[in-house]
Design a protein that fits this description.
This protein has helices at residues 3-22, 29-34, 44-55, 58-71, 73-80, 84-99, 105-113, 115-142, 150-170, 172-199, 206-210, 221-230, 239-242, 250-280, 287-295, 297-329, 336-351, 366-370, 374-379, 387-405, 421-445. With 446 residues, it is mainly alpha-helical.
Length: 446
């Protein structure tokens, strides 16, 4: 075991133990599922911090750094486009709560589209949560050893177990409380990284960063426009985000989501500067790892600790959201015991793919395309759409998702070139088709 790995083990164990002892103990279901502490819901700052850090997960900041390496600052801005999701979800949920008096996404769907819609939607988000577990822990494993080695597997098992232990204490209360701590830590570590990059002997300056990319479709704009298009459906299949839209007052929620949209995007762009620096130095491979190695053990540990912090925040949020999905949204058992056992189940099931050598899917591309059918469902939530509208739109969205996965989309309908061109145009045509089939049944009724 190398010196870096020894320190990494120490950071994982020490940080998890600190969070375990700091986490509140939930004594009732309101504390466990809705983060109510002393009869108070989370305030704007807590909710905003929780939203940002739960979305700045291990693979997203890895992607941001790599896109900075590939496309310069344009890559970082492109990936930050997904953070429009917070603003979209914030405004829609605010209006749904204020004017529709809905208490959750499931309440809205069951009221408007019936039980079958709730079932389909629940399968989609359960699959999303399942993927979140293994795809984030595999990033952590890669910092301890190569895929398939004992250190790789042991680090994943220990990390998952330690994260599970502290979130079992308080559920959503633990998740939001520790998110705020992790967000503070992330901010400090990011500041250290940027200070080092701009202050070393081979430093780059702000002008170099701003001029590091080309604003063309081939070099990042394909991804930017795809991200912006997906932002109108993507947030609604992520219960980690939407659960936080119903626990504080509508006004506090809206402010938190709007601030999270701006500050979350800023964090992603700043982190992509690691990739921009790697590009300026002619580095290749995983940008964050290569820059970390270039600056020595201490800097590498800082980067690794950011990964650990962000992965833990996503993982604990995933456990608490899955627990709420089963206990409250699907009404399978509104008890602390059921909630805690649900977390254990998703932790175990979500870790299984790690041992099957699964590839780390990009949560913001394929799964984002699979759910574009939710676009009209939530954007036109006030309209009197029929039940069949929901099913047609969701089905068409899934169909376009499969066209992306298997690369079956006709080239004649792709009007730009370069990486992510197929992603952009499949989403463009897919959303148009979803809107069309969503509206057709209403027209026929008239």
């Amino acid at each position: 075991m190398t010196e870096v790995q020894i320190w990494q083990w120490g950071l994982v164990i020490a940080s998890s133990l600190v969070l375990f002892f700091l986490s509140p103990w939930a004594k009732d279901t309101n504390q466990f599922f809705k983060a109510v502490q002393k009869k108070k819901a989370p305030n704007t700052f807590m909710l905003m911090g929780s939203l940002i850090i739960s979305w700045i997960f291990a693979k997203s900041i890895t992607n941001a750094a790599n896109l900075g390496l590939d496309f310069g600052i344009v890559g970082g801005v492109a990936y930050a486009g997904y953070y429009l999701s917070f603003a979209v979800a914030g405004v829609v949920i605010y209006k749904m709560r204020l004017h529709g008096k809905y208490t959750s996404i499931h309440h809205f769907l069951s009221s408007k589209f019936g039980k079958s819609a709730v079932t389909i939607f629940s399968i989609l988000i359960a699959f999303r949560l399942f993927n979140e577990v293994w795809s984030n822990t595999m990033v952590i494993g890669s910092y301890f050893g190569d895929m398939g080695t004992s250190p790789y597997y042991w680090s994943i098992l220990v990390f998952t177990g330690l994260t599970l232990s502290y979130v079992l204490k308080g559920g959503m209360s633990s998740s939001i409380f520790t998110d705020v701590v992790q967000m503070g830590l992330f901010s400090v570590l990011l500041a250290v990284i940027l200070f080092t990059i701009f202050g070393n002997d081979n430093a780059i300056d702000t002008t170099e960063v701003l001029n590091s990319g080309v604003w063309s479709f081939e070099t990042g704009l394909n991804l930017l426009f795809a991200a912006l298009l997906q932002s109108f459906s993507y947030p609604f299949h992520d219960p980690v985000l939407t659960d936080r839209g119903f626990i504080s007052s509508p006004k506090v929620t809206l402010k938190s989501f709007l601030w999270a949209s701006v500050l979350g995007a800023t964090c992603i762009i700043l982190f992509s500067i690691i990739g921009v620096y790697a590009q300026s130095q002619g580095m290749q491979g995983q940008a964050a790892v290569q820059v970390g190695k270039a600056f020595g053990t201490l800097f590498l540990l800082v980067i690794n600790f950011i990964m650990i912090t962000s992965a833990a925040s996503t993982l604990d949020s995933t456990f608490s959201s899955f627990s709420k999905l089963l206990a409250l949204d699907l009404n399978l058992g509104n008890t602390l015991k059921f909630g805690r056992w649900s977390m254990v189940v998703i932790a175990v099931l979500g870790t299984v793919p790690v041992f099957l050598d699964a590839e780390i899917l990009s949560a913001t591309t394929i799964s984002g395309t699979m759910v574009i059918g939710l676009t009209p469902v939530f954007l036109f939530w006030k309209d009197n759409a029929s039940k069949v509208s929901f099913h047609l739109s969701v089905f068409i969205g899934l169909l376009f998702g499969f066209l992306l996965i298997f690369n079956w989309f006709p080239d004649d309908l792709i009007f730009t070139t370069g990486k992510y061109a197929n992603l952009l145009w499949i989403n463009f045509w897919g959303i148009l088709c979803c809107l069309f089939v969503y509206i057709i049944p209403t027209w026929i009724k008239k």
